[in-house]
Amino acid sequence: MARPSSFTQEIADAICEKLADGRSLRSICEADDMPHVATVCRWLADERRAEFREQYVRAREIQADALFEQALDIADTPVEGIKTKVTSDGKTEEMRGDMIEHRRLQVETRKWMVGKMAPKKYGDKLALTDGEGGPLVVQVLKLADQEAKADADNPAT
Question: Pfam families of this UniProt entry (predicted)?
């Protein structure tokens, strides 16, 4: 079966639905019944596809929420596995336990992604403060005013 390359609203709806569920565009487009990623990018760049672009943007916004929820699910769900370790004497040891490192990577990746996708909602807040934790006071002076004052303070002889 050939990959679709002509735009249809049915395919656009399917792509956006899967994006909103938290899947990546690349993984969606790996399916034989979906267009190649480059085809979707051409559709998004096509001036005649403004409605699809809006639908796609909205799906990406919802995707950030889905990834946030996935991170919570991953953090709350232990995954048992086998860790293999080679000791200093060359022997292999296996330990069964929670795959915490893998889960941490999954959570941190999603956390980073949602912070980039929806920075106002999920991004780290940056607070500018003075050295004592108070609000930062910014003074803006015009260079011309500073030069005029300097000239007044140091009259030419």
Answer: Sf6_terminase
Q: Output the six-digit token pair for 47.
A: 């001036």
pTM comes to 0.70
Domain, as residue range, for 103: 9-152
Residue 36 belongs to a domain with what CATH number? 1.10.10.60
Over residues 63-105, the pLDDT tens digits come to 999 999 999 999 999 999 999 999 999 999 999 999 999 999 9
Between CA 25 and CA 28 the distance in angstroms is: 5
Residue positions counted in the chain: 157
93: which strand partners?
Answer: 85
> Would residue 4 count as lying in a domain?
no
Query: Which 8-state DSSP code applies to residue 47?
Result: G
DSSP secondary structure string for all residues of the chain: -PPP-S--HHHHHHHHHHHHTT--HHHHHTSTTS--HHHHHHHHH-GGGHHHHHHHHHHHHHHHHHHHHHHHHHHHS--EEEEEEE-TTS-EEEEEEE-HHHHHHHHHHHHHHHHHHSHHHHSPP---B-TTSSBPP-----HHHHHHHHHHHS---
In angstroms, the CA 40 to CA 25 distance is 9
